[in-house]
Amino acid sequence: MKLLKKLLPSFVVIFLSSWAIKPLLYSGFFPIHDDTQVARVFEMAKSLKMGIFPVRWVPDLGYGLGYPIFNFYAPLSYYAGSIFNLIGFDALIATKIMMGFGIILSGIFMYLFAKELFGKIGAVVAALFYVYAPYHALDIYVRGDVAEFWAYAFIPLVFYGLWKVYKNQSWIFVIISSIGYAGVILSHNLTAMMVTPFLLLYILFLTIASYRKKQKKAIIYLLSGLSLGVVISCFYWLPALMEMKNTNVLSQIGGGANFLDHFVCFNQLWSSQWAYGGSAPGCTDGFSFMVGKLHILISLASIAGVSLLIVLNKHKQEAEKLLITVICFLGFILSIFLTLEISKSIWQTVPLMPFFQFPWRFLIMVSFFSSFLAGAFVWLATFLPIKKHFPHFVFELSALLILALLFLNIKFFIPQKFLYISSNYYTNEYNLKWTTSKISDEYLPKDTKKPKNANEAILNKQIFIFKETPIEQAANLISISGIGILFIGIILSGKKHYGK
Questions:
Q1: Is 80 exceeded by the pLDDT of residue 314?
Q2: Which of 45, 176, 244, 410 could tie 82 with a disulfide, CB 3.0–4.6 Å?
């Protein structure tokens, strides 16, 4: 009974997230911008069947010449999808299961993090705000950027792990934070680059707090969490970084993906028409950059609540939580700032910024911070005097917020249309060697001679011989050592826990 009561809020989050995944339950599929997902899951599974691990090259993409897609494009979500393909689901269904897991995990991990500061009710609200953020819907049902919304799911897990490390100085939470950070890196490298500065600032805050409490051991633990995440994911990021020069990937910077053409207009953050087109220069884009009206209003209300508590001198006992709320609000403002043209000088000055291509990618962090602030708002409501007369006020307020959220945002979690097609549509030889290969061929070696038409591509028959480079072999060994440390930490933590 105690276990059921403990897990009930998580079940509520999963149940109320069902509208976000409902379109994945229908037969067929739907059009998305990155229409390579099913083919990638199929190719990942095919390589695993051939005994290749980690998967770097796949045999049919790259116009049938073989393609090092997973040497450069973060592979975690596709490993998950390929597992479902290998156990018997066709590639299309496996892809939809993979997508559904990414959506559900975002709510669960946000619930874990927000619960630590704002209690179970506030955490449920934060989790659902995170699941139903408009940018989340854009990633899933418009852009089809599975890698990005899988990384979106892992972001709160890193913050949760680091918070628990700060509070408990336990290796089990070092492990959780490292798994979360490795999850972000292995899901989407650009999101990892984006979230890392925020994580470092967060660690700086926790380090200062630990130092003031004379918890010097916590500082080592905090740094160990991110460091171990970097080591575990080394098999992917090190070869990608070292061998990128051998491909045409740098051609993706500039041109149609020049960041100067893709800043968000301020009014678009509040209201812009929901559509299924693309990003364009100016303020008339083919899809929406809404933060979400409720997300914005609740974020502003949360900082107003913090100010009120300070004015009423009720902040001393809850200073830590209030400070976290303020920091998250500043993160919310900074993330919005980086989507706007007024931040152009930063984009032109910081060397890595052009790799993001689109300033509106920072809506990931806007969604994260505003959703977390929704949980803070519920927690702040517990200090209102009205609670004395209406003991269930916080619960009723939370229910009202959730109903308003679902009413306003469910309509975004719907595809443009449904295509009643089978898995074979994506995995036939023509699609793999020509259609899908044309969509993404920037990772081909620079001297590759591309076929002029589909017939030439289909005639390509590569003898697939897999051999890793010395860099890749070294990266594998580093990751294996990191995984070894992780397992040792789990065993030692388990012995310490059960030894008590």
A1: no
A2: 45
Q: How far apart are CA 231 and CA 182, in angstroms?
A: 8
**Predicted local confidence at residue 248, as pLDDT:** 80
Nearest to 108 by CA among 226, 11, 3, 2: 11
Could you count the other beta carbons within 10 Å of the beta carbon of residue 53?
12
| CB 151 within 8 Å of CB 380 | no
- Cα separations in angstroms, 415 against 30, 92, 142, 421: 6, 16, 7, 15
Predicted local confidence at residue 1, as pLDDT: 64
pLDDT of residue 107: 98
Structure tokens that stand for 195 in this block: 């979230």
- pLDDT confidence band for 252 (50 / 70 / 90): low
Tell how far CA 222 is from the center of its chain: 21
Place 180 in a pLDDT band, splitting at 50, 70 and 90. very high
Catalogue the long-range contacts made by 314-322 (C-beta closer than 8 Å, 24 or more residues apart). Answer: 314/383, 320/209, 321/117, 321/118, 321/376, 321/379
The verdict on pTM exceeding 0.85 is yes
Burial of 301 (0-12, 13-18, 19+ CB in 10 A): middle
Q: Is 61 left (phi over 0), alpha (psi -120 to 50) or beta?
A: beta
Q: Is 150 in contact with 76 (CB distance < 8 Å)?
A: yes
Helices (H), 340-469: 344-349, 363-381, 393-409, 424-427, 429-430, 436-439, 454-459
Average pLDDT, the chain: 91
Residue partners of 427: CB distance under 8 A and separation at least 6: 38, 39, 42, 91
Helix (H, G, I), strand (E, B) or coil at 419: strand
